[in-house]
Design a protein that fits this description.
Elements: H1 4-16, H2 26-33, H3 35-55, H4 58-78, H5 83-93, H6 98-104
Helix pairs in contact: 1-4, 3-4
Amino acid sequence: MIDLEVLRRVSTTLAERKQADPDASYVSSLYAKGTDAICKKIAEEAAETIMAAKDGDRLHLVWEVTDLWFHSLVLLAHQGLSVEDVIAEFRRREGVSGIDEKKSRSR
């Protein structure tokens, strides 16, 4: 089971980093670079996740998924969202067929 508390603590820390000095905080430096830089980092981590999965290296896969989740949380915080928003969406989707859920989206 996912320890939601650790995700919540990370989410809180990421929101706090918005006020930090970009020269002293990696996350603050990402915020300063903007959405495009954050998205580029997520794409990089997604590619590394795929490569680790294809290599069959389970520990490396865990590391890369952790990096992917972390940078996704950075993007959420940058956009004024948090892990709570994602948790709420997971709760909304729980028990709903993926096919039905996809059809229900208007976009």
